[in-house]
TrEMBL record:
GO terms for molecular function: methyltransferase activity. Residues 1-22 are annotated as: Disordered. It comes from the Bacteria. This is Methyltransferase. The lineage of its organism: Bacteria, Pseudomonadati, Pseudomonadota, Alphaproteobacteria, Rhodobacterales. Keywords: Methyltransferase, Transferase.
């Protein structure tokens, strides 16, 4: 498959210059996607899971879901055997689950650099950055509306972050670009400033098609039809409503063999019941309806069981993050996804804090740990999330990206081979000695412990002499150092020229629109 992609690129010209550029380009290390060697945490017993599944079928059959402003989707459901009443779709028991059965349990998303390909499903965990904030924050500029320059900086930071597997999608919303054209600039940035996998546009069906067309330039049109090169986020308008914008994008991606995350967007107590089991019932009903519809469009289209669920502060009405209830729902949703044999998306370094402070750290760590134990396969918002998702933070991005390394090491589990048993070290040192100089330590010290590239472990005196810098300051310095040393990954000039031409023609074909 990688060979087919390479062959497609070579036909676009500029090959000699591109190969010379590849030989001289600086290689940025990216860790392979996580493969868990630890068990998942199974919160719910068989009885509870069966109750949720039975109740979700009842929701679909008796209450139904709304499919808004999409007559074609209503007709698809009618032909499949659903009962249609206006825009309400009632799905007979067992029909949605039967349709979902054609969705693959695991798929490969291809990057333009085959070494960055990711496997999504099974025991894997793939990390992707923050998605969607209209604001950004850093120490120099404070909180402000995001621009395209900010967007490009985040893409560069993501490319250079070792533990981050994907470049992402709307890492921030560049408000200085017209709404109807910014998806072109965002995709172009992901395609040219990084060689990691990325996400497509979902804000309109035509923009999803632009994403597919641009991938046809980058990978080759046939390669795109035969392989998955994008995973894109389709949010359900909870409770139980599928709008024409998201469904239009889903239809484009499913028809073109591109993956979608069917993700209820739930604030518990506002958009779902306050109880864990009630919320999980709604999540499962919404996901089954969305996944089933993707399979009506194209059986076998890759799709992910998504669950973005937070609780609510009953005093202010604001969403809360890192709470035990949210973890309970994550664990339960993971079990339901595995019973459906589907990849699972949830979590991230979520927090409600305005700054990358102690609140942000506690809340983010709670969710990151739940993600690892809960069997999540695709973690959106892995780094950079602040203020309930309204803000993408540069320092927070760097801090979170560093902590993703902890998940990699935890997921490895514990080795009990001869080296792991370390009996030779125990014999060599014996009572009263120390292990710093023994042969086992010398052979293993480089890889024995995870090492941060950010946090400060120096003695107090050294830390004080260097300016008594807190973590946000250290993250700011690291962020600037990464951007200063960034080098663009090589890309065939013929592909770059074709992308430039596509974007220019698309922009020229329509007037600017900021609504």
């Amino acid at each position: 498959m990688a060979e087919a992609a390479a062959a497609g690129r070579r036909t676009r010209g500029g090959g000699g210059a591109a190969r010379r550029a590849e030989r001289t380009a600086v290689s940025v290390e990216t860790a392979k996607f996580i493969e868990r060697n630890i068990p998942n945490y199974e919160l719910l017993n068989e009885e509870a899971l069966e109750i949720i599944e039975r109740n979700a079928e009842t929701v679909l059959a008796e209450i139904g879901v709304n499919v808004v402003d999409n007559p074609a989707a209503l007709e698809r459901w009618r032909e499949a055997g659903a009962e249609i009443d206006g825009e309400r779709v009632r799905i007979p028991r067992g029909l949605a689950r039967k349709l979902c059965a054609t969705a693959p349990s695991r798929y490969t998303q291809h990057a333009r650099n085959p070494e960055r390909n990711v496997e999504i499903g099974g025991k894997t965990l793939v990390t992707a950055p923050v998605y969607g904030p209209p604001f950004v924050r850093d120490m120099e500029g404070g909180r402000r509306y995001a621009t395209m320059d900010d967007f490009r900086k985040f893409v560069k930071l993501g490319y250079m972050s070792k533990w981050l597997h994907m470049s992402g999608g709307t890492v921030c919303e560049p408000t200085d670009i017209p709404v109807n054209k910014r998806h072109l600039d965002m995709l172009y940035a992901h395609m040219t400033l990084s060689d990691k996998p990325f996400m497509g546009s979902v804000t309109e069906a035509s923009r999803a098609q632009d994403s597919v067309d641009m991938c046809g330039i980058l990978f080759g049109e046939q390669f795109v039809q035969d392989n998955t090169v994008m995973t894109s986020l389709i949010n359900v308008n909870s409770p139980m409503t599928f709008d024409d914008v998201m469904m239009g994008a889903l239809e484009v991606y499913a028809a073109n063999n591109q993956a979608c995350i069917i993700s209820p967007f739930i604030v518990g107590g506002a958009m779902a019941p306050v109880s864990v089991i009630g919320t999980l019932t709604q999540v499962l009903a919404e996901v089954m309806a969305g996944v089933a519809y993707s399979q009506l469009v194209r059986p076998g289209a890759p799709v992910i069981f998504g669950a973005f669920v937070t609780s609510i502060d009953m005093n202010s009405g604001a969403p809360t993050f890192g709470t035990p209830e949210a973890s309970h729902i994550l664990y339960g949703a993971g079990q339901l996804a595995r019973r459906m044999n589907l990849p699972f998306r949830s979590g991230g370094a979520l927090c409600g804090s305005k700054l990358p402070d102690a609140q942000a750290a506690y809340e983010s760590a709670n969710t990151l740990n739940a993600v690892l134990l809960g069997g999540v396969n695709f973690m959106l918002h892995s780094c950079g999330w602040l203020e309930g998702g309204l803000v993408a933070g540069f320092e927070k991005f760097v801090m979170d990206a560093d902590q993703l390394g902890v998940l990699h090491n935890l997921a490895r589990g514990v080795q009990w081979d001869e080296n792991g048993q370390a009996m030779d070290a125990l014999r060599e040192v014996g009572p009263g000695g120390h292990f710093l100089g023994c042969a086992h330590t010398q052979a293993n010290f480089k890889d024995a412990f995870w090492r941060t590239e950010l946090l400060d472990y120096k003695p107090f005196e050294t830390w004080d002499e260097e300016g008594a810098r807190d973590t946000m300051t250290l993250a700011n310095l690291r962020m600037h150092r990464m951007l200063d040393t960034y080098q663009r990954p090589a890309l065939d000039q013929g592909i770059t020229d074709a992308l430039d031409e596509f974007v220019a023609k698309k922009k020229a074909s329509m007037p600017d629109a900021f609504m």
